[in-house]
Design a protein that fits this description.
The protein has helices at 22-27, 52-67, 75-85, 176-190, 212-218, 222-226, and strands spanning 3-5, 13-19, 35-37, 43-44, 87-90, 96-102, 108-117, 122-128, 130-132, 137-139, 148-156, 158-161, 170-171, 193-194, 197-198, 203-204, 209-210, 230-231. It is 26% helix and 32% strand.
Length: 232
């Protein structure tokens, strides 16, 4: 079927940025029915879903190597870790369909297929901070690989579907994954609080949450250290 989310001004995305330790990240899914699925690229022909241990292990590597690690990685090396946690979530695999990949000659691929959700999914991706010493400004709105600091959950506010040529706009909170999104946000807030970020000259209150356990190690982040920033 296919859908399109983020439909312009006021109809974009529900977003929530956060920093949790690997154990805490895994804990927010306790007692919830969920499945990790790849939606941003082709998948093997026998693909059904992504193993939860792969994602949890991937976040552990991402947290230790990218968020608080000492080594500077090039873009390819960075992507090796980031790719493992760029994933989608659904509470029901029955809403995840697949469609054939057909080349220009009309030949169907025997090796790969495309994921085709029939309902909007929750997306997980990194979030970043960008700091300007000259302007004393801080943003979490821009992609800045050097400033990779945590994870972001996103879920569309409204969607349109290809089966009616995207003519109808539907409220995405009518789908079950909206409840899962809200439950995960509640679970994160229950073990964390709004971050404070101190520069040499100013105290910022950026739009992300961080747990007390993550605070114990987050200031090892290379971007924070290079800009003399402290999260509390």
């Amino acid at each position: 079927m296919g859908y399109f989310g983020g439909l312009g001004s006021g109809k974009g995305w529900n977003k929530f940025n956060f920093i949790l330790t690997p154990n805490e990240f895994e804990s927010i899914f306790t007692d919830h029915k969920f499945h990790f699925v790849i939606t941003n690229t082709r998948v093997p022909i026998d693909y059904k879903a992504t193993d939860t241990l792969y994602v949890f292990g991937g976040y552990k590597d991402f947290f230790n190597e990218i968020i608080i690690g000492n080594k500077e990685y090039d873009r390819k090396e960075h992507w090796f870790y980031e790719d493992k946690i760029r994933i989608s979530l659904t509470d029901d695999l029955n809403t995840i369909n697949f469609k054939d990949i057909i080349d220009k000659k009309g030949v169907i691929s025997n090796d790969y297929k495309l994921v085709d959700p029939t309902e909007p999914v929750i997306n997980i991706s990194p979030f970043y901070i960008t700091f300007s010493k000259n302007n004393e400004s801080l943003s979490v709105a821009y992609m800045n690989t050097e400033g990779t600091i945590g994870l972001e959950l996103t879920y569309p506010k409204f969607v349109s579907f290809s089966n009616d040529k995207f003519n109808s706009i539907l409220d995405a909170n009518t789908f079950n994954n909206y409840n899962l999104f809200n439950d995960l946000v509640k679970n994160i807030k229950a073990i964390s609080n709004k971050a404070k970020l101190q520069s040499a000259a100013k105290l910022y209150r950026p739009n992300f949450w961080i747990s007390p356990e993550a605070k114990k190690v987050i200031n090892e982040n290379r971007y924070l250290k290079s800009n003399s920033l402290l999260i509390s």
